[in-house]
């Protein structure tokens, strides 16, 4: 063995259940290979009752970080040493980073979303309509408020969840927001018509997720206007019906791969200090999902 040989890999991965359909490993290992990193991303199916053991195991084995997905994004917090700003505000963690020997919980979902939007526009001063009030919606709303969005309208069928998100935004996030920020709740009934002054429209629901690829979001498509930015968080298929409908109305669109790749890029940077090539990561996912349909 020569002096420069090293057979020890940097270890990262994901804790979730179920985990078999999580494609994150594909794009992460593609990034590691592209940048010549001796690192591995291990997709782990961790049941609820074993989460603490998994975190302790990651500590013991010297993992440099890991992701958490459903159902561990909240439960993992009690096993960590601290939280980043946005993770503390939303009370959810999807990315754990080792800093000075401590496990620090971050939330990169919303950061990945913001990065995608910033390629098309500065979020500052914009008005956003957000369909859904689950974990993805919370991450998006918090990070967009911190990025300077002026107003968020949360459209959700369940009033309790919708109002809970709006209360979080107005009570906890607004003092830290980058601008003059407010949020309101609208109960989702029938086909919701987007207000004419809306800048950004977001589907943060599972509507359109494989295999139900023809599912239609209850949205008045005629209310979408040229110049609006329409964003879907669903990565599979990349071109959902919502994305295609919005494109036909003249909207600028961002597909769900943007958020998935964006949050993965941030995680790699947190863990390794390298800012990976997003196109390499996106191409790896398209190789799995297939090229997006153009119609």
What does this structure look like?
There is one protein chain. The chain has 295 residues and is of the alpha/beta class. The protein is built from nine helices and twelve strands. The protein has helices at 24-34, 51-60, 85-90, 109-118, 135-146, 159-173, 241-248, 256-272, 278-289, and strands spanning 10-16, 39-45, 65-68, 82-83, 95-99, 102-106, 127-131, 151-156, 182-187, 200-203, 229-232, 252-254. The strands form two sheets. It has a six-stranded mixed β-sheet with strand order 2-1-3-5-6-4, with helices on both faces. Strand 11, helix 7 (241-248) and strand 12 form a beta-alpha-beta unit. Helix 1 packs across helix 8 and helix 8 crosses helix 9. It starts with 9 loop residues before the first strand and ends in a 6-residue tail after the last helix. The model has no long low-confidence stretch (mean pLDDT 94).
State the end-to-end CA separation.
56 Å
Sheet with the most strands? 6 strands, mixed
* Helix percentage: 25-40%
According to DSSP, the number of beta strands is: 12
Rg, alpha carbons:
19 Å
Question: What is the approximate shape?
Answer: globular
Structural class: alpha/beta
Low-confidence sequence ranges: none
Strand order of the largest sheet: 2-1-3-5-6-4
Order of helices and strands: EHEHEEHEEHEHEHEEEHEHH
Q: How do you describe this structure in short?
A:
With 295 residues, the protein is an alpha/beta fold.
Structural descriptors:
295 residues; alpha/beta; 20% strand; globular
Topology overview:
Blueprint: E1 10-16, H1 24-34, E2 39-45, H2 51-60, E3 65-68, E4 82-83, H3 85-90, E5 95-99, E6 102-106, H4 109-118, E7 127-131, H5 135-146, E8 151-156, H6 159-173, E9 182-187, E10 200-203, E11 229-232, H7 241-248, E12 252-254, H8 256-272, H9 278-289
Helix pairs in contact: 1-8, 1-9, 4-5, 4-8, 8-9
